[in-house]
Amino acid sequence: MSSLARKHVLVGVTGGIAAYKSAELVRRLVDQEAIVRVVMTRAAREFITPLTLQAVSGHPVRDALLDSQAEAGMGHIELARWADHVIIAPATADFIARLAAGLANDLLTTLCLATEAPLSVAPAMNRVMWDHPATRANIDILSRRNVHILGPDSGLQACGETGEGRMIAPTDIVSCLNETPSTGVLQGVRVVITAGPTWEPLDPVRALTNHSSGKMGYAVASAAIEAGADVILVSGPSFELPPPGATIHSVKTANEMLAKVESQIASANIFIGVAAVSDYRPVEASRKKLKKGQETIRLDLVRNPDILASVAARADGPFTVGFAAETEATLNNAREKLLAKGLDLIVANSVTSDNNPFGSDHNHLLLIDAKSDLDLGRDTKSALAQKLIIEIARHYRAKHSTQDT
């Protein structure tokens, strides 16, 4: 049975072109046996009719705060109390700004202030609006208030531009709502997580790095926090918003990341190395910008420290989980890495034309131990992180149960 079965889900629809996707979202929630009510803003009515949403939800749609019949019994408070989860999809830049400001000037913003249910928003807007500092600041405010930010996705937009700002697919929203880990599976557990790339300087303006965005590591940190863990996040350069509740340590190079991990690892119960750490660095970085002149130049590299192996080799080391991005023989190569480094678990993903996780909101993960493997499937990184944390908690508890007997 779906975890959404018999749950009360309040879907808020705001005035963006992505409102047409809200009907599919409601239908898919109903398919999960959720009980769905819909609240629209007045602007949303310009994009989709209340009758359509009533037809797919099976219940009347509310769109007015001062509805004399409903408000005779403080209807907006009753609706706020009724909800087990509130999801705003699409959430426009205007609505996000009003929500961040704490306004209650229509039914939907009032409900968001009056409810104690978990609140999620699925942003949908033009790519420039999404990148605007005001919007990013508002998203940061909501994140710090434990509002779940689902997406946005990248791709062709209704305005004809291409970029980040599309509302994520209704199936992905349902997956995020359906895969919330059980509260407390990592309660009282201290987890150190690395995320993002490392930058190895060539000169004052250039560096060796990779395509990692930090999205997967930040999603894992968020899922661990939701599961009750005390999370320390050691992050290379990333534009991702810090997960609310995590202690953040920002680094650039592999040596800096190793030093910060070593300063935090003694009291850690679990270490999850999601970061894409550069394998090599220049023997010596130039103090001045390297000028273009010769047709070819020689670059001498030296191997970077192996952070995963270093943590796993500690006599009092934590339960250690690594990540492996492979372009071929994914399962075999990842298991070899697991055994060579002495890890407890390794999470593998293939980097192919069909699944390139770098910079994407989606991934396909395979969880591997010494004897078995579990395909976690392809999903949003946030949904995969939630599945992954449940599995890591299960393996961690099993290992400690065995050690204690």
Structure description:
With 405 residues, the protein is α/β, with parallel strands linked by helices. The chain folds into 2 domains: 171 residues, Rossmann fold; 205 residues, CoaB-like (Rossmann fold, 3-Layer(aba) Sandwich). The protein is built from 14 helices and 19 strands. The strands form 5 sheets. An 8-stranded mixed sheet has the order 12-11-8-13-16-17-18-19, with helices on both faces. Helix 1 links the parallel strand 1 and strand 2. Helix 10 packs across helix 14. It is globular. 44% of the residues are buried. The mean pLDDT is 89.
Overview in brief:
By secondary structure, the protein is α/β, with parallel strands linked by helices. The chain is built from 14 helices and 19 strands.
Distance between the termini: 34 Å
CATH class of the largest domain: Alpha Beta
Number of individual domains: 2
Q: Based on the coordinates given, report the CATH architecture of the largest domain.
A: 3-Layer(aba) Sandwich
User: What average pLDDT do the residues reach?
Assistant: 89
Structural class: alpha/beta
Indicate the percent of residues in helices: 25-40%
* Total helical elements: 14
The global form is globular
The radius of gyration is 23 Å
Q: What's the count of strands?
A: 19
The CATH homology group name of the largest domain: CoaB-like
